[in-house]
Target: Amidohydrolase-related domain-containing protein
Amino acid sequence: MSERTEPRTFTARWVFSVSGPPLPNGTVTVRGEHIEAVLPHGARTPDEDVGNAAIIPGLVNPHTHLDLSGARGQIPPTDADHFTDWLRGVIGYRRTRTPEQTQSDTRTGLAECLRHGTTLIGDIASEGASWDALAGAPTRATVFREFIGLGSERAAVAMTTAEAITKSLPQTPNCRVGFSPHAPYSVHHALLAKVTELARLHRLPVAVHLAESPGEIELLQRHSGPFRTFLQNLGIWHADALSKSPDAWITRRLRRAPDLYIHANYLTPTPRIPKNGSIVYCPRTHAAFGHAPHPFREFLARSVRVCLGTDSLASNPDLDVLSEARFVRAGHPDFPGDQLLRMVTLSGAEALGWADETGTLGAGKSADLVVVPLPNADTRDPHELVLAEHAGDRRTMFRGAWRTATRAREGAEP
Model:
């Protein structure tokens, strides 16, 4: 990454460290790959003024499926009651893709994440297929190896695979492994127990799709509804393999750190979420399926961490996590802007276990930042400027080096 050793100081109309109050015309000083100082206006003479813009921490997208990036517009989301129809479309799409096409789709999605200013990604991938693309890209990432197996035989194979992975865990300075037992309707309870126990022993993050649709709740509570028909049609209906409720996945199984509960659209705020557990809310995907209002505010009121993700291009228009925050702001204008900015930076970094390195602007942190153009307007709360829809290209620094357009495109090239 950056080989420069002399300090460089940048200023902007606003500097948002996330760990402290916004600084009007503040400065960020970078030395090599790290931030040396974040100071108020006048404390240091800047080397570069980026103008009418905000300097914010690098964006964090804790939930993606990069392999579905080729499905943009091909699998329109259904209403919430027909969610399994959309799942059939996703399964059908994946079955048509060759390994080469899947890798191309992954690189396409990665390039889009980089272009929007993402510097930390959580990607769920079958067989960990996105590892090579992410490990070689100018971003941090956690690649969640996905496990699926409701029948006892397939679950046993998946358990053997999980054990094998933990014997030779790949890791780079920018890329780590996680585990993802997919969802309550697709994972045998014994497989869930095995995968999460291995994750605990090896301190790996776990990501689970949980309480995503009303049909999932009906399946677990009464063994009926559209998910039963869906599983029967696939030939994988095994009633004795199911957990009893979404809450059981939290209170009985996933007591380790960190855990990511993806979507949680219909998860009541009553379960005791572990201290290092996180709800990952994907606002525009949630809206596309017409789900009931998300309980993110109730979780926050209970001091549960909530961060924002994009899900995939099979259900979302793009992979821009800042647009997710702007979408929430449009629907909840009374929700504090500083919390929203935290939800796409520090909260995501905490959820993925990277908060010591990134997620805020501060001395000693990695120099991961985004320059976001601002509208020509004044407002009492400067967060409103960052959260306003506004055109303009963003500039991204990762580990002290500016990403060029060519470098960002590397995510889409073999």
About this structure: The domain at 8-57+360-403 is CATH 2.30.40.10 (Urease, subunit C; domain 1).
